[in-house]
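Input sequence (176 aa), recorded before submission:
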Amino acid sequence: MITKSLVPFVKAETPTIDLSVKVDRQGNFLVLKYEMTGAIESILMAEGDFPTRRIGLWETSCFEYFFGVPGQDYYWEVNLSTAGHWNIFRLENYRSGFREELAIEALSVSVNRSAFSLETRFNLSLLGLEKSEIELSVTAVIADQLGEISYWAVCHAGVEADFHLRDSFVIQLNSV
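Predicted structure, token format:
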């Protein structure tokens, strides 16, 4: 298991929270557990009782990760709301060929929220990539109650917040 902290792209926009992720590859599954602590009451969070597939989750607080196979142009983007809503997209190249990944019909999600913390855990089948090494970028879009948005990542590789840059896919997970 790998544990990493996410940092905001611009520190001046930082809400008073800490954000980290634990990443594990268990067989053909990728398991991510995001942990947010601090002043989470200042964060605008999605609500809902039953997690469903939705588009546009990045328009408010949203955990995201991107993964691909080293040396290949195609990659996937996974969006996960603070209420457990989700979606996954496949891209053929940098920001192009964007389409919903319909091979995934459900995502295993759990959300635990208290006054000072939020924990979300997501399990994703690696779509037949069990024999492939994968590279991963872990990110988040955090909206506060005033509508300000900050962009968080394990690694910011560009001069602007751009989660699609393959140089930011810095977590390497070997095949099983």
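Checked by second reader. The chain has no helices and twelve strands.
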